[in-house]
From TrEMBL:
Recorded coiled-coil stretches: none
Organism of derivation: Candidatus Accumulibacter aalborgensis
Lineage, broadest ranks: Bacteria, Pseudomonadati, Pseudomonadota, Betaproteobacteria, Candidatus Accumulibacter
A Pfam entry, by short name: MeaB
Keyword GTP-binding: yes
Stated name of the protein: ArgK protein
A GO MF label: GTP binding
Keywords of the record: Chaperone, GTP-binding, Hydrolase, Nucleotide-binding
């Protein structure tokens, strides 16, 4: 029998914080490991990472939009800008839709395209293709993003916008960008739905197509939330072309501007705290249902607790989980199974 010497999660955390790519990869594998034996190690890794960084300085960006809008091409163009400026970037490419015709190929293709700027220590890409969306992408993507935030300046999550995913991504990212394409039915649908409220930055890609792109941008500008909806943020709608590299610089600068806006207004801390409560609640609900959530004190109390300064969300989650389990055991101890009627 081979004995594999796994690194202690605390040591792994230290290496991740030093920016070691191999450690980032092992850490993500550990978080992705659903076996019971990995649970405790994952929890220790996350607890020790967030003990070091209560509010990671990095910028967590979500990019979403309909299939084929050019998200991956645009992400690749943005990465070039960031890397030129010496900014390090981690990417999580998520395709929760399990589109059978794609077979994960779309993301692999994306990886190759992004690889243009690879062999680069400052860029790390992890693909999460064909996920079972049970519980939503947010449950697994949040801890992974948190891990990557420990060592990259920018962590970018790319998802395909299919309704629920947009809502999920809004519960993760500091800044959300929606990529539209000219004259697309998806974009019209999007404009009609309530989720137009979600993004902070809009891009209409493929502006090399001319008039249809300008028309779509005008439609989005008309539908985008007004300035006063979220403090003083002005919701830019950018005409860009990822393949022609048009408008990328101006588009790309809005991300740093939004990050600055969040920091200046104090929204960043609030947003992260809201996102961490959403994650804990979502996970507990997925595992134990509404009854379990109530046993842990209910949404409101959990939210309050997690918004307190210095609370380690991952440790808190583990504690709440243990608490619920012990309550379940006392309600229904294993030695006296209830009879089925
Ligand atoms: N004309 C034009 N085509 C573009 C532009 N950007 C991307 N494309 C093309 O649009 C197609 C889709 O681009 P992707 O970057 O794969 O789009 P995506 O949104 O990531 O697609 P999925 O991952 O499948 O949802 C490709 O054939 C690109 O070459 C652009 O600026 N102009
Ligand atoms: Mg893509």
């Amino acid at each position: 029998m081979t004995v594999i010497n796994l690194p202690e999660p605390e040591q792994l955390a230290a290496r991740i914080l030093r920016g070691e790519r191999a450690a980032v990869a092992s850490g993500l594998n550990l978080l992705d490991n659903k076996r019971a034996a990995a649970r405790d190690r994952s929890a220790r890794l996350l607890a020790s990472l967030s003990a070091e960084q209560a509010l990671p300085k990095g910028h967590l960006i979500g990019v979403t939009g309909p299939p084929g809008a050019g998200k991956s091409s645009l992400v690749a163009a943005m990465i070039r800008e960031w890397r030129l400026a010496g900014t390090t970037v981690g990417v999580l490419a998520v395709d929760p839709s399990s589109r059978p015709e794609m077979g994960g190929g779309a993301l692999l293709g994306d990886r190759i395209r992004i690889k243009n700027s690879s062999h680069d220590e400052g860029l790390f890409i992890r693909s999460l293709a064909n996920r079972n969306q049970l519980g939503g992408v947010a449950t697994e993507v949040w801890p992974m993003s948190w891990l990557m935030l420990a060592c990259f300046d920018i962590v970018l999550i790319e998802t395909v916008g299919v309704g629920q995913t947009e809502i999920d991504i809004a519960e993760i990212g500091d800044t959300i960008c929606y990529v539209a394409q000219p004259a697309s039915g998806d974009t019209i649908q999007y404009l009609k739905s309530g989720i137009i409220e979600i993004p902070d930055i809009f891009a209409v890609n493929k502006c090399d197509l001319g008039a249809p792109a300008r028309k779509t941008a005008a439609e989005i500008s008309r539908s985008a939330p007004r300035q006063d909806r979220r403090e003083a943020w002005d919701y830019p709608v950018c005409l860009v072309s990822a393949t022609m590299n048009t408008g990328i610089k101006a588009f790309h600068e809005h991300f740093a501007r939004h990050r600055q806006f969040l920091a200046n207004t104090g929204l960043l801390g609030k947003l992260r705290s809201r996102h961490q409560s959403a994650w804990v609640i979502r996970l507990l609900k997925e595992e134990f249902g509404t009854f379990g959530l109530e046993l842990a004190g209910g949404r409101e109390l959990i939210g309050q607790r997690l918004s307190e300064n210095g609370v380690n969300q991952f440790a808190e989650y583990e504690q709440l989980r243990k608490h619920i389990l012990s309550r379940f055991m006392s309600v229904n101890p294993p030695s006296s199974p209830t009879k089925r009627s």
